[in-house]
Design brief:
Layout lengths: L1 H26 L29 H12 L18 E2 L5 E5 L4 H6 L6 H12 L8 E4 L13 H18 L3 E5 L1 H8 L5 H4 L3 E4 L2 E6 L2 H6 L4 H15 L7
Parallel strand pairs: 2-3, 2-4, 4-6
Antiparallel strand pairs: 1-3, 5-6
């Protein structure tokens, strides 16, 4: 009996180590081990629209920024230094959406460049991506006074530009960072704790919600949950998990 218990415990430990080993391999891009060379059939020609007929995401993003102009549509313009529009690749397969600019972002004109931004950079690297390959933006483009949460009317006024950005880029998956971004995109008042860890959809695009990096800096115990959310994102990016 004691031998059986010991064997079961050892077997459980081996399975646990194997699980994390396979997860690490998966994050590096190794997803299967074919037993024999695959037979490749003759490629089927697929007709695609001419590139000239497609909207250029980069040009569209520039046009949206021009439409925004020196925005005075809500009260947030009164205390801002710089409009923080967005940053990254117009062809990004992953877009991160935050709440709004903080002090450092307001000074530099780029999203997520402070302490929270450094943690976001680590999250991006955990997905085996470069910051330059993703796109990062916020619900509101002007810093709220004292870094407070944007008010509902402020988020509603500014979100029209966020929605146009997302439609222009049309990423494979969107990651909402924190309650403000998640609630704005999903038109809900549910808490981020109840929204994270699940597959959502925004206008047909997979959407994953997770904790804001600034929150994770204050609550390190939640980093494990955020890691699980990153695995959901990675699964969608690699085709091993379908978004809604």
């Amino acid at each position: 009996m004691e031998t059986d218990k010991k064997t079961n415990a050892e077997f459980g430990a081996i399975l646990n180590r194997l699980k994390w080993y396979l997860t690490d391999l998966h994050m590096t891009g190794i997803t299967d081990w074919p037993l024999k060379p695959r037979q490749h059939s003759t490629p089927i020609a697929v007709e695609t629209a001419d590139d000239s007929e497609r909207a250029d995401p980069e040009q569209t993003l520039v046009a949206i920024r021009n439409d925004m102009g020196d925005c005075t549509r809500c009260r947030l313009h009164l205390s801002r230094t710089t409009i923080v529009y967005g940053d990254g690749s117009p062809q990004a397969r992953l877009v991160f959406v935050g709440e709004g600019p903080g002090f450092d972002e307001d000074q530099q004109g780029r999203p997520f460049v402070g302490r929270a931004g450094k943690l976001l950079d680590k999250m991006i690297k955990a997905l085996r991506l470069r910051r330059e390959a993703v796109y990062i933006c916020n619900v509101v483009k002007c810093r709220p006074p004292d870094n407070r949460t944007p008010l509902q009317d402020e988020a509603q006024t500014c979100s029209q530009f966020l929605f146009r950005q997302l439609e222009a880029i049309s990423p494979r998956v969107i990651c909402a960072l924190g309650a403000c971004a998640a609630q704005t995109l999903l038109a809900t008042t549910k808490s981020i704790s109840s929204l994270r860890g699940k597959n959502h959809s925004w206008r047909g695009m997979p959407l994953i919600c997770t904790f804001h990096p600034a929150y994770l800096l204050r609550n390190a115990s939640q980093k494990a949950s955020a890691w699980q959310d990153l695995l959901l994102i990675h699964g969608i990016l690699t085709g091993h998990q379908e978004g809604n």
